[in-house]
């Protein structure tokens, strides 16, 4: 019995020992699991903190980069503006220099002509006196005529000779008068241009509408194209929606209708409500706004040109020229400039300056309706002006400013001259980008065709060529010959306005290394 108790006690002790050991292991296992969980959570938190820090750094870097790019763009724009101003100043200085040189040449030619004429008149007078003396002596000695008979015969002969001389003198004076008139006309036009030195910017109407996102394209189209069909039917334009992001294109031949459609679509996108009834409502409001704008622009043009206000319909047609361009030149700005130039020329000639301004301002009025009526813009404009009671000079200027100037009255001649000056001034009409790039490439290509030419650069918008030749294969004399040959080739193969300055650079370099 005692042995059994001892065995039971031993077994109980062993069970208690192993139980304690098991509990200790379980507690250790739980503690390790908890510690691992804490470590995993700490790692996860650390990873999150690291990612947040990286995002903040990236955002700060992007923001700083945007600020730097914005500053760079501002600096580039300022530099480009300064370059444009310098180019404009250079053009003005070149024009003034050319005018001064022309004036100097004209004065020198006039002086030479006058000197020659004075010498010729003196020589003719001497010859005439010698002939008269010889004739008198011959008459007295050979014919033994009385003084009265000799005088009569001498006068008859002189009358015949002077009649022939008179024709030559008349032709010579006609030539002098023509030259003097041409010089005076050139001077008057140059003075008018100098008194009105307008800044030119070539304009081109755009027909694009910016949209905030591509989702708006779907709203513009509408369900099964309902909105876009209604818009095109109401406004009378074509709406082009392609893959170009952020842009919708409005197309129409009528510039005012196109502008009304563009403003309507812009207002619809800003409003957000796009459906057929809303389109019609916005278009009606926009049409009224544009008509008011056209009337106001026409009145402002009359005020700017200092022209008495014409009939309301004429003012409306004049305002519509704001939306018309000719060779990328805004027709309304062109008409205002022609008005100023016509007034200045008329003032120099002693004519009615106000009437000349009126003729110049309204000379292209037909362009506001040439797509609605049959005929060219001169006839259309003359019919409109005649219908609303404009003076005959204004009607004739609109009708005949493109015809033979010899058959026109003075005001039509003045308007034709001012129209030509305004259209041909630098910057008034823009050449296309493709033509500009092609001309620059052609200049460089011609220069590169010559031997020993390494590089050629067209600068100053094609007004100057800089050519670099190989210094080892050429001399100063051959470089000068190459320059002359390039100038001859450019003159023979290209047509260009103004002049092109060609500079051939032959550079010699000396290189050494300090050790």
List the helices and strands and how they pair.
Blueprint: H1 2-143, H2 147-195, E1 208-210, H3 215-221, H4 226-235, E2 238-240, E3 247-251, H5 255-271, H6 276-304, H7 312-320, E4 325-326, E5 329-330, H8 331-349, H9 353-361, H10 377-387, H11 392-400, H12 410-424, H13 433-448, E6 453-459, E7 464-469, H14 476-493, E8 501-506
Parallel strand pairs: 7-8
Antiparallel strand pairs: 1-3, 2-3, 4-5, 6-7
Describe this protein with a few key phrases.
8 strands; mainly alpha; three-stranded antiparallel beta sheet; three-stranded mixed beta sheet; 515 residues; elongated; Alpha-Beta Plaits
Explain what the structure shows.
Helices cover 70% and strands 7% of the residues. It has 515 residues and is mainly alpha-helical. Among the domains are: 115-195; 433-506, Alpha-Beta Plaits (2-Layer Sandwich). The protein has a 3-stranded antiparallel β-sheet with strand order 1-3-2, covered by helices on one side. Helix 9 packs across helix 11, helix 10 (377-387) runs antiparallel to helix 11 (392-400) and helix 11 packs across helix 12. The chain is elongated, with a radius of gyration of 45 Å. The model is unreliable at 200-206 (pLDDT under 50).
């Amino acid at each position: 019995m005692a042995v059994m108790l001892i065995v039971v006690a031993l077994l109980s002790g062993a069970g208690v020992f192993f139980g304690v050991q098991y509990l200790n292991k379980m507690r250790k296992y739980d503690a390790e699991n908890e510690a691992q969980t804490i470590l995993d959570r700490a790692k996860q938190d650390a990873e999150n903190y690291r990612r947040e820090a990286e995002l903040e750094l990236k955002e700060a870097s992007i923001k700083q980069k945007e600020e730097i790019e914005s500053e760079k763009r501002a600096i580039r724009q300022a530099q480009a503006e300064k370059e444009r101003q310098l180019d404009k100043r250079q053009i003005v200085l070149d024009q003034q220099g050319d005018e001064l040189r022309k004036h100097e040449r004209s004065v020198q030619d006039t002086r030479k002509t006058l000197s020659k004429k004075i010498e010729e008149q003196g020589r003719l007078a001497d010859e005439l006196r010698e002939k008269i003396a010889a004739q008198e002596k011959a008459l007295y000695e050979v014919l033994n005529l009385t003084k009265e008979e000799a005088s009569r015969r001498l006068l008859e002969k002189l009358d015949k000779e002077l009649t022939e001389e008179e024709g030559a003198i008349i032709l010579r004076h006609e030539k002098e008068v023509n030259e003097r008139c041409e010089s005076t006309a050139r001077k008057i036009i140059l003075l008018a241009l100098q008194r009105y030195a307008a800044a030119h910017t070539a304009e081109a109407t755009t027909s694009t509408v910016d949209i905030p996102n591509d989702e708006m394209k779907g709203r513009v189209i509408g369900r099964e194209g309902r909105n876009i069909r209604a818009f095109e039917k109401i406004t009378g334009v074509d709406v082009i929606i392609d893959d170009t992001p952020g842009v919708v294109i409005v197309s129409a031949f009528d510039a005012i209708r196109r502008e009304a459609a563009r403003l309507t679509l812009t207002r619809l996108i800003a409003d957000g409500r796009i459906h057929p009834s809303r389109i019609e409502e916005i278009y009606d409001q926009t049409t009224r706004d544009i008509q008011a704008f056209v009337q106001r622009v026409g009145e402002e043009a009359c005020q700017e040109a200092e022209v008495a206000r014409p009939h309301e319909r004429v003012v409306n047609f004049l305002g519509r020229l704001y939306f018309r361009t000719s060779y990328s030149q805004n027709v309304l700005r062109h008409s205002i400039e022609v008005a100023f130039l016509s007034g200045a020329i008329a003032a120099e000639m002693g004519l009615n300056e106000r009437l000349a301004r009126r003729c110049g301002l309204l000379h292209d009025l037909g362009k506001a309706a040439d797509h609605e009526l049959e005929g060219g813009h001169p006839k259309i404009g003359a019919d409109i002006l005649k219908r609303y009671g404009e003076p005959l000079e204004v009607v004739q200027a609109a009708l005949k400013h493109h015809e033979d100037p010899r058959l026109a009255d003075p005001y039509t001649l003045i308007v034709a001259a001012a129209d030509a000056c305004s259209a041909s001034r630098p910057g008034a009409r823009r050449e296309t980008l493709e033509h500009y790039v092609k001309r620059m490439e052609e200049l460089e290509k011609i220069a590169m065709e010559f031997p020993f030419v390494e590089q050629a650069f067209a600068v100053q918008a094609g007004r100057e060529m800089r050519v670099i030749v190989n210094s080892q294969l050429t001399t100063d004399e051959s470089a000068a010959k190459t320059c002359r040959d390039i100038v001859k080739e450019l003159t023979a193969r290209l047509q260009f306005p103004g002049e092109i300055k060609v500079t051939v650079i032959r550079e010699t370099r000396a290189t050494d290394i300090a050790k």
